[in-house]
């Protein structure tokens, strides 16, 4: 597994990097998953330290967690415990997902844009109805089943996931509703 361990405006020592590699490796190995890489970022939020970890699995799924504490090792342990809980909760589903899939998850490229908010314009009316693009990025759109998309949404703790439905190839969206349920948008089924 490839590790990328870094700090935002804080120094990360060799001892912490070794600790992170050993503990994350042990956590992932416990569930017999095949991770491809892990990204761990430490940062400061007021008086607390924050650890954000993302683990990419060979099945194409991603697990993410975030931990906070006043000490850097405690922040990492909090984050690792959350990852452990996610992976334990989805262990059976992750294995079943991998067993049914004969090829790795395919990703299509796409463009992602960040549009200016109302605050950017101030009280003035915009000159046109076209939104002002302030950033453009590349994004990956996975080709997965609806069940896999919901699992990815929950694993990554995201609010929404755009994916290509593996059954019919159309673009679909799953999202977390305010009432806690999961919504699914499939434009193909409109009349």
Automatic annotation (TrEMBL):
Domain Sigma 54 modulation/S30EA ribosomal protein C-terminal: 130-183
Predominant location category: cytoplasm
Keyword Cytoplasm attributed: yes
Subunit annotation: Associates exclusively with 100S ribosomes, which are dimers of 70S ribosomes. Interacts with 100S ribosomes.
NCBIfam families: yfiA
Similarity remark: Belongs to the HPF/YfiA ribosome-associated protein family. Long HPF subfamily.
Official protein name in the record: Ribosome hibernation promoting factor
Biological source species: Pseudorhodobacter turbinis
